């Protein structure tokens, strides 16, 4: 039995069909049937119950499935690492970013990285920090930028940005000429929020509840520029990170420091501790650490 036997077994188990597995592997059905039969004879167990055109794993098959996944995964890691050695500075990186960070300083970082590694392809996915973190966890992304704190047992991380949230109000708002505002003073206001898949959504609600009130949310969006335009149209107040606020038109929107409490906006870069990272991904982490740490 070799790694090919295990890969064929896993494909049959996943698709629950010899025919579909054969089609997916571009081999004939008799070939894959013969290979599964040879595994069963070698181990002295039956791995599949044949139920017409479909198959189901037996109890022995279930044990085999778990072990085979680990073995094939380890073999793939070995192949990836050897491939890195033969193809230095080539590869693909999947990076998740919150929309706010993507439009500010990140293009400059990407530009500098591309100058050094022109053959590395970077796939950027813009999403809320909660979705980005979930995709890094499940393997959909190699690396993600999320809001701190995160699961330290699951992820490696380092700090990118430490700023705070600022309050946005319309120039005609009663608070517009204040030097600073306390959060409890906003209990009766209408808010424009980020959507629920953004970590800031939960963070701001938690801070409001801690301050003694449940915020009244009238609008939600995934785009910071749309949120600021809603404030400029006098449709509510909002919180945005300080770097974003520096880009806003002071004639149309008043930006005020928030105190008691100050709500931090601390972004970190994360990647799984227990998952193989390609050379390109490891080099991206080293490169950005040199810039930010």
Automatic annotation (TrEMBL):
Signal peptide positions on this chain: none
Q: Which SUPFAM superfamilies match?
A: Periplasmic binding protein-like II, Winged helix' DNA-binding domain
Which GO MF terms are attached to this record? DNA binding; DNA-binding transcription factor activity
Q: Which Pfam families match?
A: HTH_1, LysR_substrate
Q: Which InterPro entries match?
A: HTH-type_LysR_regulators (IPR050950), LysR_HTH_N (IPR000847), LysR_subst-bd (IPR005119), WH-like_DNA-bd_sf (IPR036388), WH_DNA-bd_sf (IPR036390)
Q: Which UniProt keywords apply?
A: DNA-binding, Transcription, Transcription regulation
Q: Name one GO cellular component term.
A: cytosol
PROSITE patterns assigned to the protein according to its UniProt record, in alphabetical order = HTH_LYSR
* Keyword Transmembrane helix among record annotations: no
The text of the family note is: Belongs to the LysR transcriptional regulatory family.
Q: What is this protein called?
A: HTH-type transcriptional regulator CynR
Which gene is this protein's source?
cynR_1
